[in-house]
Amino acid sequence: MIKISADQITTKLGSPYYLIIGNDPYLQHYAQTQLKTSFKQLGFNEQLTFNIDNQTDWSTIFDSCQEMNLFSDNTLIFLDFGEGSINANITTKLNTLSEMLTAEIVLIISLNKITKANENAQWYKRLSDKLVVVSCNTPDEMQLPKWVTNHLQQKQMQIEPQAIELLCYYYEGNLLALTQIIEQLKLLFPNQTITYDQIENNINDSAIFTPYHWIDAMVSHKTKRATHIMQQLKMNEFEPLILLRVIQRELILLINLKKGLSTKSFKQIFDEYKIWQNKRPMYTAYLNRFDIKDLFNTLNQLTEIEISFKHDSQLQIWDALSALTLQFMGIK
């Protein structure tokens, strides 16, 4: 089995089995398009797409395999799970399908995520020797600059380092818009190193964030980033009450962690609450910076905002959320 990122897919063309995993629509589309085009050039002109859910008629898929075996046509089968997952019933069907594959059949499976149970299934083990797993998860804040740099190299473009930071700031979480603006910049400024000012005059704030990006920015004490995320959530008309509920859960977690530290080590308390390893440094720093009284004060402020908003829908809720964001980070 080989594991690669989507931007490496052109280096691993020709394998009979591909598993495209991830929820980024741009990367999914890119990986699928590259594979379908490549196999068409290799003579796999028959390309069958099946959208997989609990109502899928698998007999049609099995019949297609048997017909291919009979006529020896090179055929690509693409199984698109969309937002769905692989349950026990579908696992049984995939087990059967994996037994029917021949050298004339290429199998591509597109899936949001894969579980340990999936990896232990017969079909996965049967394909694993020749399987290429393509990661299509959206690059995070730390990964994005390198992704942009690689993409620019593929486009044979030169952009000032500070300008790359600017692109990442305004297009994080939105690779489709990011690649479109890069293409536009290439047309506007051909055969030259593109400057910070040139990019600044041609971009829009198109970053896409979730409430969990907001939480991580606040816990990490990244004031500028937390404020930027708040602005984008407001612009995208995210429901304020959901944000209040998300930050409430986070504050309760932090209070419980802080209480636990009175008798346990950081490792013990993080293990107990199943804090991911990569998030432990930022939680450690936050808990060292604030005492439990600060956390309760922020929680009380959140409660007051929620009560006020429920009694007065005209309340300037986004102003209140901005103030709460700063209080969470200890900024008065």
From TrEMBL:
CDD domains referenced in this protein's UniProt entry, alphabetically: HLD_clamp_pol_III_delta
InterPro entries: DNA_pol3_clamp-load_cplx_C, DNA_pol3_delt_C, DNA_pol3_delta_N, DNA_polIII_delta, P-loop_NTPase
One Gene Ontology cellular component: DNA polymerase III complex
Entry GO MF terms: DNA binding; DNA-directed DNA polymerase activity
Keywords: DNA replication, DNA-directed DNA polymerase, Nucleotidyltransferase, Transferase
Any Pfam family: DNA_pol3_delt_C
Matching NCBIfam families: holA
Family of this protein: Belongs to the DNA polymerase HolA subunit family.
Protein name, per record: DNA polymerase III subunit delta
Organism name: Gilliamella apicola
